[in-house]
Amino acid sequence: MQPKKVIVFVGMPGAGKSVCVEYLKKKGSPFAYFGGITLDEIKKRGMEVSEATERLVREDIRAQKGKGAYAVRIIKQVEEFFEQGQNYVVVDGLYSWTEYRIFKESFGLNAVIIAVVAPNAVRHKRLTTRSVRPLTEVEANARDYAEIENLEKGGPIANADYFLANDSTVDQLEADLAKLLVKAGLNF
User: Mean pLDDT over residues 43-69, rounded?
Assistant: First the structure.
């Protein structure tokens, strides 16, 4: 019997995590989205979705329920997918060191952490031109600082099992991801 794997993407905003997740979704993998928790909470609070409200809610949830609050919720979703017979579940957007540790403690080697990395200038250009929730250069910098300083995002990136450089095209990123999956023994 094949072990069940959780493929967890981590990276700074605009690095390409969502592109990787979309690639795996097209291959039939179910996914869980950290950002979905934030967006649901913003709606629940009757707030408008913006960079400021997203940051406020992300930080507030973690301040109120602990730095591992998102991971606990996402792990429940992952386990439900496994109970439905899924062998792989993709997770988009792990943030904190605490969340990283929770995933590794919960799933051990079956939690495969992939850091998607890109130079700041490339990421920020993507963020300013994206169609959904675009950011200004000032907002992109502020988000980078907030995620590193307030959400411990550097640790999971530094300790990822695999690194995927994304400084080219979507096609190149998808090709590199396909090669990485083979290397990691993740057969889609």
Answer: 91
For residue range 131-153, what is the model confidence (pLDDT) as tens digits? 888 999 999 999 899 889 987 89
Q: How much helix, strand and coil, in percent to the nearest 5, is found in the chain?
A: 55, 15, 30
Instruction: List the chain domain ranges.
Output: 5-181
Stretch 25-31: mean pLDDT, rounded? 94
Give the CATH H-level superfamily of domain 5-181: P-loop containing nucleotide triphosphate hydrolases (3.40.50.300)
Global pTM reads: 0.91
**What pLDDT is stored for residue 151 in this prediction?**
78
The DSSP code sequence of 41-92 is: HHHHTTPPP-HHHHHHHHHHHHHHH-TTHHHHHHHHHHHHHHHTT-SEEEEE
